[in-house]
Specification:
Layout: H1 18-31, E1 60-61, E2 67-68, H2 72-88, H3 93-100, E3 105-106, E4 112-113, H4 115-129, H5 137-141, E5 169-171, H6 179-182, E6 191-194, E7 197-200, H7 201-220
Parallel strand pairs: 5-7
Antiparallel strand pairs: 1-2, 3-4, 6-7
Helix pairs in contact: 1-2, 1-4, 3-4
């Protein structure tokens, strides 16, 4: 049960994406079901900020100082809208829970929210979603369909790995040699990129042999 800024953004109201649904489920799980607050119909334990505020009707101060909604569906909708409003503001999970459940504060029920508890909240939801806490939620919302579906990468190619091989083409000259000869060519982990073509150690070895052969023929002629 935590303090938060209870607000709604106009953009996204009434829309529930897979990311919002997953976040709402994780928050509800983290908050837990306190029998003393069940009558609030408030799965996210949103703090009460006033009657008929933020476009909500029928909201009253409930048990523990949390908002009490007339139905569970309206309380769920309020949680979804809160999540979407914070996503719209450009937050990542760290930003989100430092607003939703900030450390060093006293929650509506009178308990103290520590910084460690806030970090635990961030870690839990990050694990449930499969999203790094430093990734902008708005940047992955459109592609999110469950844990592992929102790929984030620093490589710029969206593959989650770096690619230093130009256009990715490669050449295996050893494959053109008879198997009896190719089998004696030493392999190598060293690669060289020439005009976007990746040459391995064995490729360089074959090119060296070819160069020697050309020079020998030239000398004979």
């Amino acid at each position: 049960m935590y303090i938060l800024t209870f607000e709604f953004g106009l953009s996204g109201l009434g829309q529930t994406s897979s990311l919002v649904s997953a976040m709402a489920a994780a928050i509800t799980q983290m908050e837990g079901v306190n029998p003393a607050f069940v009558g609030n119909n408030n799965p996210g334990n949103l703090v009460y900020v006033g009657t008929n505020q933020n476009g909500q009707t029928g909201v009253q101060r409930g048990a523990g100082g949390f908002a009490a909604f007339p139905t569970l569906a309206s309380g769920q909708s309020a949680l979804n809208n809160q999540i979407q409003a914070q996503i719209n503001s450009g937050q990542d999970l760290t930003d989100f829970f430092n607003q939703y459940a900030p450390g060093g504060t006293t929650n509506a029920a009178g308990g103290v929210q520590t910084s460690a508890a806030t970090q635990n909240y961030i870690n839990f939801v990050s694990g449930q979603l499969g999203i790094d806490p430093s990734v902008s939620l708005a940047s992955v919302q459109g592609s999110y369909s469950g844990p592992g579906s929102a790929v984030t990468s620093d490589s710029g190619n969206g593959s989650g790995s770096t690619d230093d091989s130009g256009d990715g083409s490669s050449l295996d000259l050893a494959s053109y040699l008879p198997s009896s000869l190719a089998s004696i060519i030493p392999g190598s982990d060293t690669t060289v990129s020439l005009a976007g073509v990746v040459l391995s150690g064995s490729d360089l070895f074959v090119l060296g042999l070819a160069a020697v052969a050309v020079l020998a023929v030239h000398a004979i002629l």
